[in-house]
Structures are given as C-alpha cells and as structure tokens.
Request: fold
Amino acid sequence: MGLLSKKDVKLITDPLADNNPITIQVLGICSALAITAELKASIVMAISVVFVLAIGNVVISLIRNIIPSKIRIIVQLVVVATLVIIVDQVLKAFAYELSKTLSVFVGLIITNCIIMGRFEAFALANGPWRSFLDGIGNSAGYGIILVIVGFFRELLGSGTLLGFKVLGDAIEKTGVYAYGYENNGFMLLAPMALITIGIIIWVQRSRNIALIEHN
Amino acid sequence: MGLKEKLHTIKEKGKGKKWLPAFEALHTFLYTPNETTHSGGHIKGADDLKRTMTMVVLALIPCLIFGMFNTGYQHFNAFGTPVEFLSMDAFWYGFLKILPLVVVSYVVGLGIEVLFAIIKGHEVEEGYFVTGMLVPLIVPVDIPLWMLSVAVIFGVVIGKEIFGGTGMNILNPALTIRAFLFFAYPTWMSGDKVWVGGAVERANEMAAGADVAAVSGETILGSLAQGKEVAYSVYDMFFGFIPGSVGETSTLLILLAGIFLIFTKIASWRIMLSSVIGALLMGLLFNGVVNAGWISEGSRFYSLMSTEFWHHLIIGGFAFGVVFMATDPVTGSQTNKGKWIYGFLIGFISILIRVFNPAYPEGVMLAILLMNVFAPTIDHYVVQGNVKGRLKRLKAKTA
Reply:
C-alpha cells in the first residue's frame, strides 16, 4: 500500500470540488467576502488557513481521547487561537503591509466556521494522518474559491493582478484604458464578492447536476 | 400563402427544436398564435401581460421625447449657444444622443432573454419590454454604451433570470441596472459633468490642454448636497427644464403618465399616493427640525433639510421612481393594506437617504430596491393579520 490509499486521496480531492466548504457547505463566507478584493491577500489568507487547519486537525486528533467532551469547544478554541497567533506574528514580522491589509481578519480565522467544523466533524473521530489530509483538503478547497474570487475582483475592480497593472494604467490611460475601459468599482465592494461566489456556485451546479438539492 | 400561414407552418416544423423559443417570440410579436386551449372554462381578459406592458411603454413615450428635447436644450445652453426648448436643433441633438441608448438597452436585454429562453427551453417573455424603455430614461445621457451593456447584462441575469424570469424577480430589473451603474462607475453617474451631453468630452479636451470654456451642469440635488445656490425656478423644476437623467426631469409629464396608468388600472394609486404622503411627511419633519433651530446653518445637511418639503416631489427622480418603478406589480406589495405601507416607506426612506447621505442623492432608487426586498414580508403579515382577524370573528360568532 502506498502512502495515500484511495480513501485518503478522496479526503483531499473531495473538498476541492464536490464537497467544497464554501460553495457546497456555505461555510467561511464572511472572510471570503471581506479580504478577496486583492489576489495577494486572498492567497496569503488561503495559506494561513491551510496552516491553521492542517496543524490544528492533527493536534486535536492526537489529544482527542483525553479531551473531556464537555469542554471540547474550549480546548479547540485554545488550539486555533494559538495557531492563529503564530500566523499573525509571522505575518507582522515578514509581511507587515499585507498584515495591515488583512487586519482583523487574520485574528478572525479563529471564528472561521470551517475550522471548528472540521475539528468537530472529523478530527475528533479520526487519526492524526487522516485528519491532516482532511485539513489540507478542506482548507485548500476554501483557498481555491478565495483565489478565484480574488482574481476576478482584483482584475475587474482595480485592473491589476498581484499589484501588476495587467490592463494598463488607469490614470495614464494606457492599455485597454485608452479605449475608454474603466474599472468596475462595484467589484471592490462586498456585495459583488457575494455575487461572484454565487456565480461560481451556479457554474459548479450546472456542470454537476447531482449537487442540486431537491426538496 | 400569406406570411401568417407560413409562420404557422414553420412553427409546426420546428417542434422540439432549440431555436423554437426565439422564433416564437418573433411570431407572437407579429401575430396572435393559432393555439387554443382545449380544456376548462376560461375568462377572456383584455388586460394580458402584453397589453399591460404596452400601456406602460405608451406612458413612457412622452417622457422619452421630452428627454430628447431637454438633452439638446441643456447641451446648447451649457455650451453658450442657447436655443429654444421646442426647436428642431434641440430635438435632433437629443434624438441622436438617446437613440443609441434605447437601441443598446433593447438589443442587449432582449438578446439575453432569448439566450436564456433557448438554454432553458421556455418561451420568450415580454418582461423586458418595459425595462428596456425604462433603462435609457434613468441614466445620464453621456453614459458610455459599453457600460450600459454590461449593466443591462448584469441586471437581466442577476436581477431577473436567476430568479426564474419575468414575474419571479425580487428586485426591479431597471433599478438593478441603475444601481449597478451607480456603484460600478460612480464617476459616470454623479458629479456636474455627466448630465449635460458633451460636457465630459469637453472636460477631457480641457485636460488635454485645449483652450475652451468649462461646461458643467449639476443636478438640483447635487447642488443642494454641496450647499450651493440652485439656479432653477420651481417652474423649471415642475416642467423639467433642468439637468438630470434622460427621462426623469419633467414632473408634469410624469404626473400625466401617472394619471393615465391609474385610469387604465395598471399602476396602483395606493402606492403612488402613500409614497407622496411619506415623502411630504419626511420633508415636513426636516423642515420642522430646521425651523426649531436644532441644526446649525453650517451643517452639511442644512441646505437639503431646509429645502421646502414639497420641492422634494419635483426634484430628482422621485416622481419618476414612484410612478413607474414603485408601482411595478411584480416587485411591489400585492395586498391593499401592504401597498399603503410599502408606498409610504418608499417615500419616507427616499427623502431620508437624500438628506442624510449626500453621496447618494438619488435616494428613491435605493429606497425602492430596499422596499422591494421587504414587500413579501409586508404582504405576509397583512395576510396573517387578516387570517387572525377572521378567526377571532368566527370564534366570537360560534361562542
């Protein structure tokens, strides 16, 4: 048997598409709306969540048999908070400007429902290796959506990608701006992020009809 | 064989084909389809969807034509070569400016409708007929056509089609389109340039170094929000010789259209009347605050607050929004009591937004969209209240 069994691979690939935390479970929407105005912030946020969820899942899984179930939420919070503070400090030390853009939302990773959700639903009932894979899968599924939304919002809202002026200079009127194109300010506002996520959900469900609920 | 029979045979041949909905749209536009229902009793009503829509468009035509005259009038006045209001020069300038807006609005909007009809396999609905006429009337005349197209695509897809098409939408599609433009391209939707045809171009020329006089034309709400003097008389405001979105300026024509729509029983007089009451009440409240001296003259709300309460009805897009958009039978309240509440709150909130948020001078747009969202809730409570009342009566009777 190889390093990853078929079941293990499914743990990673499932949350990327058919069981995506954002588009299918509709969790973690708040941060997906708040920080996706720039692609860079989306990527950093995605990486931070991958770190927190993967390590957190392992830690919870290792101590799952000794946590009294009455206080398990508090224990989980302590674990997330510790990891989030590490991420926050690293960002402040090595990417200060970016940490200012992300501001309070790094701290708010603690309240990201995906993280507590995975602790409760998976890490408390599975071994460390599988929990690790589950953490990677779910946070990557979250990250993918963040990056897609960030890509469109930055491209259409500011005309840049990762800060590079890919569409030309809006003030100097070069590139497409010379032909009268203008940035769409609505893309930078949170409602348009929600609509973008809605469109992603729409596209995903029309490609995979099995995802549509019937009630 | 005449055209009419030919179309029928084409339709028979096209059964089950993908393009049939698109063909049917054209077909029903030209002739009454030759289909009849076979079961059940029916009441033949003359006020079908198509008749209703046609009536609203008829009511809009005077506003459109007035808008063409006014566009030319404002343009020539601002550029220092004044012309008579009712002159061919003014009309022709406005006609050439506004016709592209109308064409783009209809071509793009109907294109999307047909596309969705083909994908989803339903018939093309005539829902866009009115929206397509409303859109050019509620935008500044100089709006770039590609922006209008983007907004129309957004409004029709996100505002209407994803909810299930005509009759299922929560938000008024025309206002969704305007709101999109307003938030996406604010520089083209506010300020003192966009309301006069050619003024933006002139500003660009000046920026490039041309030696020409600056041209500007601020809307009345815009000047009030900045605390400037208003150069227009009440007479101008009522008849509509003022800068503004294409069709919204003439309160007189909108009033006549409103009476026409009430007379033909297409729009609800309850909504219109209660909106006006709401707006007047809010205006009176603000006037009261000013008269009581609770607000200093230095305050940035002062000039809008001290505007005489009934002026609010004839400036900005209030009249247009209330007559043509608040009364949309799909997105408004359905119950009679609900209509009073819905309309009153539209008027009340419009003036509230106008005064307290000078960045959004067109409060009526946001007020209507907000109340669109609440209309089903209002209806729910009105209906539940009625059910409860009747149950109580029943109990009293049987006890």
About this structure: The interface with chain B takes residues 180-182, 184-187, 189, 195, 202 of chain A (CB under 8 Å).
